[in-house]
Amino acid sequence: MTGSEARWAERRGRSTSVLALLVGGAMCLIASTQVWATTEVAEAAVMSEGSAALPLLQPLSLAAMALALALALTGRIVRLILAGLAVIIGVSLVAVIVPVAVRAPVSAVQSAVTDHTGIAGDEAVADLVTGIEVTPWPWISLVFAALIAAAGVLTFATSSRWRRGGRRYEHAGARAQAAAGGGPLDAVDSWDDLSRGDDPTLAAERQSAEPERIEPPHGEGRRD
User: Fold this and answer.
1) Is the domain of 179 the same as that of 113?
2) Helix pair 187-195, 172-180: axis angle to 10 deg
3) Which of 142-146, 186-190, 191-195, 214-218 has the largest mean confidence?
4) Do 99 and 19 fall within a single domain?
5) CB burial of residue 196 (10 Å; 0-12, 13-18, 19+)
6) What is the mean pLDDT of residues 217-223?
7) Helix boundaries (H) for the chain
8) Its pTM surpasses 0.90
9) What is the pLDDT of residues 104-143, one digit of tens each?
């Protein structure tokens, strides 16, 4: 990894990975509510949504979004585990979406046809179907499923260089030491402490409560 790539990974790696997972999961979830196929059954058009064509689409999409939230809060080792899960989810989604997008099997519309006609069974439903027309939504969800897998790969490649905390908390320790040592805290520092639930006056009160040591004048020795 070059210097510029390392700097990008440190500054943008976390946000890019989290955003890619969120967008990929959210778009796949939205796709699950859209019409994926229109089936001709006895001169009637039966529409099948993504959640009916692929029952796993919604749970895996929600799992990807949950991974994005967890990825923003965890440490390095856990990030690698979550990255592996993201790759598995993305690849799994691609594997189940491709057959629907390419071949439009009867199994993808079977539940919708059964709800419409009351007839169940693979062979019985296949006999009723005279044509299946696929909408663009399977292809759209396929792109975002690949984005989920890519986010997992990106996490693997960059997570070792992610910053541990935000800029707001980088100097928290320094501010605490300044307060303990009697250094002044400005209004912004005090507001940040209050927003985290800390009282910025406690350190000053503790210091004022400590007895002041009086050093003997220079040159005076201990009297026997």
Assistant:
1) no
2) 110
3) 142-146
4) yes
5) exposed
6) 53
7) 3-31, 50-53, 57-71, 76-103, 110-117, 122-128, 137-158, 172-180, 187-195, 201-209
8) no
9) 888 888 888 888 878 777 777 777 877 888 899 999 999 9
